[in-house]
Amino acid sequence: MISYESLWNTMKLRGITTYALINKYGINPHTIHNLRHNQSITMFTLERLCMILNCDPNDVISFKDDPK
């Protein structure tokens, strides 16, 4: 299961809000929705987030075991 928990932590450390991602950096609001609901994003979006946050993919996304 995809988790973006590390993204929210990285954003907090860098002082970047979802408002800034949308309005300053041009991230689509639908993408923010996907991130909030742990849904998939494109590799292009992952690359852009890493560039914006000056971080590695592990600082954005992680994979958790799916609880059954």
SSE map:
Blueprint: E1 2-3, H1 5-14, H2 18-23, H3 29-36, H4 43-53, E2 62-63
Antiparallel strand pairs: 1-2
Report on this model:
This protein is mainly alpha-helical and 68 residues long. The chain has a single domain, classed as 434 Repressor (Amino-terminal Domain) (Orthogonal Bundle). The protein is built from 4 helices and 2 strands. The protein has a two-stranded antiparallel sheet with strand order 1-2. The longest helix is centred in the C-terminal third of the chain and has 11 residues, at 43-53. The chain is globular, with a radius of gyration of 11 Å. It starts with a strand and ends in a 5-residue tail after the last strand. 12% of the residues are buried.
Task: Tell me briefly what this model is.
The chain has 68 residues and is mainly α. It contains four helices and two strands, in the order E-H-H-H-H-E.
State mean pLDDT (0 to 100 scale): 95
The geometry reads as: globular
Into how many domains do the coordinates divide?
A: 1
Enumerate the strands of the largest sheet in spatial order, edge to edge or round the barrel.
1-2
What ranges have pLDDT less than 50 throughout 5 or more consecutive residues? none
**Which structural category fits the helices and strands?**
mainly alpha
- Quote the beta fraction: 5-15%
